[in-house]
Write a structure and sequence with these properties.
- By secondary structure, the protein is of the alpha/beta class.
- It folds into two domains: 89 residues; 94 residues, no CATH class.
- The protein is 40% helix and 20% strand.
- The protein contains seven helices and nine strands, in the order ααββββαβββββαααα.
- It is elongated, with a radius of gyration of 25 Å.
- The two termini are 47 Å apart.
- The C terminus is likely disordered.
Length: 235
């Protein structure tokens, strides 16, 4: 679904605004509601479609780094060689540690967020310890959401961050906000409850669905080799 169709669907189902008018206040209200509901859904879970890999190239004796401008939230950072996750310090924890250690060069074992770049809003981190040499820190982040504007309707902008199967969830959230604006509190509550319930269900499915199980027998050569191997068979 693209943004234009989403706005028209909300207008048609709620009788809010003029259907083919994209310059009215109703259109702006719908897009504002969509942005807020997207952020709400984004914050609830580390959705698999929101993930992106991170690489931080280390410079000796340099502790502060700016992450990719598309990263909206850090999920994990880990050493390229050790593979161990870095400890995420709160700022208070970091200050207590710094008073005793002054972040001297050494093996990196943690990090603390230190704000955002003023021009790109990219996340900035300080590594603990300060890297003593070159190398890489790897990790995963949740991609940043980019809010929609009314101008995106004319360019046929799609709702591309969230996949098609989630657009109905967003639709119910936005309808809840529009019904609230219209003073239809009962309809607002019904749609808001559906929005929250369906997010909970999506999270449950994402966290509890097992990996695919082997449903067909392994190849014949593997079964033969397994029968003829000596020693203990670990299954």
């Amino acid at each position: 679904m693209d943004l234009a169709k989403f706005v028209q669907t909300v207008k048609r189902q709620t009788s809010f605004g003029r259907l083919n008018n994209t310059s009215d206040q109703a259109t702006q209200d719908i897009i504002d509601a969509l942005n807020e509901r997207q952020y709400e859904m984004w914050r609830r879970h580390d959705w698999e479609y929101s993930l992106e890999e991170l690489t931080v190239t280390l410079v000796a004796n340099t502790s502060d780094y700016t992450l990719s401008a598309t990263a909206g939230s850090v999920i994990v950072l880990y050493g390229n060689e050790s593979g161990l996750p870095l400890k995420r310090f709160t700022f208070r924890e970091y200050l207590r540690w710094w008073r005793n250690n002054n972040n001297a060069p050494g093996t990196v074992f943690g990090y603390v967020r230190i704000g955002r770049d003023p021009s790109t809003q990219a996340i900035k981190v300080r590594l603990v310890n300060t890297p003593g040499g070159a190398g890489d820190i790897l990790g995963w982040a949740k991609k940043k959401l980019v809010p929609y504007t009314v101008g995106d309707i004319a360019t046929n902008t799609g709702l591309t961050f969230f996949p098609d199967e989630t657009h109905g969830i967003l639709l119910r959230g936005v309808k809840a906000d529009i019904y609230e604006t219209l003073g239809k509190k009962d309809l607002s509550l019904v749609n808001d409850n559906k929005f929250k319930t369906e997010i909970d269900q999506a999270i449950l499915e994402d966290e509890s669905s097992p990996d695919a199980k082997l449903t067909s027998p392994p190849p014949a050569f593997y079964r033969k080799r397994r029968r003829t191997r000596g020693g203990t068979i670990v299954s």
